[in-house]
Amino acid sequence: LIIFTTYFELIYCIMKIMNSFFKNKKIFVTGHTGFKGNWLINLLLRYEANVVGYSNKDEKIKYYKDFCETEKVKNYYNDILNYNFLKKSLLKFNPEIIFHLAAQSIVSDSIIDPKKTFETNIIGTVNILEISRELKNLKGIIIVTSDKCYENNDKKKFFNENDKLGGKDPYSGSKAAAEIVFKSYYETFYKFSKTGVASVRAGNVIGGGDFSKNRILPDCYRSLKNKKKLIIKNPSSTRPWQHVMDVISGYLILAENLCKNSKKYSGSWNFGPNTKNNLNVKSIVEYFYKEISTKKNAVIYSKKNKNIESKYLALNSFKANKKLNWKPKYNINEALLKTANWYKYYLKGDKNIREVFRKQIIEYENL
Asked: How far apart are CA 236 and CA 322, in angstroms?
């Protein structure tokens, strides 16, 4: 046990040295109480950054308080559309780096309330980019959008950063519009400034701590917890599945490079998994259930696709591979196993869930 503990503490010390760039950096994170936000906050605190978080006051706060050392974060709870409050919060903190994750990120919700989706995802991005023009010490802005920002006609191709933007549903359309906002602000205001600005597009991100509705693995977890049947509407749809740590590591690598050379690293970036990770929904569900529980759960596969999501989606991450030396560390089986193990702990009522986050972060760094 002593040897085991000493080993992981050694890894911890090594990683502190390797990630010294973020130590004491003033970092502002919007959407910090969400799924990816929780992992990002955990990593930034691990690297001893000075972090301020800005999110809506909603049900996600409960999970955030369980998962992160919230006492080490200055937390603002308000709408990203509240321009005056957001401006006051940003000017008061005067950050060096901004990660903009705040969004309406559920496709089904965008169909129910398209107006709210467009407002949050477009005007929220405008607010960040507009206010940031007044921040004197700002070195880098990361605008998180989505792989669904591309015009997808279900052709089996890998989208690169220069492909045409589009979107059949309001969520996809709002993310494509956010990309256009980002580019116009960059070309007009940031291109010749000291601040680097980048947009990032990831695939379907999986990992522990996601409790969003109408997402496949959180729905699987809830079906097990509540002992209810799970209805899968699009079992044959394929997505670029990837673990959240692969994605967040890409954001952090880009942020560091962006701060050091704004002209070279500004622009749009794909962070997608290896091509073998593009499995269909049915395969993902079956693997997850096999790993998380010995009991068989009733799953109903429906062939009726009532929504307008694309059946096929894949990303080309050659740019990030070549220019950032970034590549995914987990294949699909490893990503699913880490995700299933996290939910397995949580399903058992593990009260020390922060330690599970820490352990999985260390395991990832050790790769």
From this structure: 32
CA atoms within 13 A on the CB side of 193: 21
pLDDT of res. 199: 98
Residue found under tokens 């259930």: 289
Q: Is 321 exposed, middle or buried (0-12, 13-18, 19+ CB in 10 A)?
A: middle
For residue 177, give both structure tokens.
């519009």
pLDDT digit string (tens) for 153-201?
Answer: 767 678 999 999 998 899 999 999 999 999 999 999 999 999 999 999 9
Q: Which residues of the chain have pLDDT under 50?
A: 1, 14, 18
Whole-structure pTM value: 0.91
Over the stretch 48-74, which tens digit does the pLDDT of each residue have? 999 999 999 999 999 999 999 999 999
Tokens of 329: 């560390």
45-to-19, 140, 257, 322 alpha-carbon distances in Å: 11, 18, 20, 28
Would you state the pLDDT for residue 100? 98
Residue 3 has what pLDDT? Answer: 53
Indicate the length of the chain as a whole number: 367
- What is the SS3 assignment for the chain? CHHHHHHHHHHHHHHHHHCHHHCCCEEEEECCCCHHHHHHHHHHHHCCCEEEEEECCCCHHHHHHHHCCHHHCEEEECCCCCHHHHHHHHHHHCCCEEEECCCCCCHHHHHHCHHHHHHHHHHHHHHHHHHHCCCCCCCEEEEECCHHHECCCCCCCCECCCCCECCCCHHHHHHHHHHHHHHHHHHHHHCCCCCEEEEEEECEEECCCCCCCCCHHHHHHHHHHHCCCEEECCCCCECCEEEHHHHHHHHHHHHHHHHHCHHHHCEEEEECCCHHHCCEHHHHHHHHHHHHCCCCCCEEECCCCCCCCCCCCCECCHHHHHHCCCCCCCCHHHHHHHHHHHHHHHHCCCCCHHHHHHHHHHHHHCC
Give the pLDDT of residue 115: 97
